[in-house]
Design a protein that fits this description.
Elements (H helix, E strand, L loop, with lengths): L1 H28 L2 H9 L5 H4 L8 H14 L6 H16 L4
Helix pairs in contact: 1-5, 4-5
């Protein structure tokens, strides 16, 4: 029984690890940083790193990704939104789980 639980847990790890890679691909595919570049008039990544950023929790990051998806009609599914959130959190925000 323990072996089965360990096997299932080990199978889930690669899926989670790949999620941030998929999130990065979605950010590129949906041209998120082009929009951010236009908003910041410069470095697109500055929107994630500025001191007065709106996103200051994981919940707000999820809400912001959902808002961008809806407002810009990016047509991402909820699991894709989550992949983008995981990528942005791991790369910039560092909120954790």
């Amino acid at each position: 029984m323990r072996f089965a639980a360990l096997l299932l847990a080990s199978l889930a790890l690669p899926a989670f690890a790949g999620s941030t890679d998929e999130g990065r691909k979605l950010v590129e595919e949906k041209k998120c940083e082009t929009c951010h570049h236009n908003k910041t008039l410069g470095d697109a990544k500055a929107i994630y790193l500025r001191k007065d950023r709106r996103v200051n929790s994981l919940a707000k990051l999820k809400s912001q990704v959902a808002l961008c998806n809806s407002e810009l009609n990016l047509q991402m599914f909820p699991d894709e939104e989550q992949q983008v959130v995981e990528y942005l959190d791991e790369t910039y925000y560092k909120f954790g789980k």
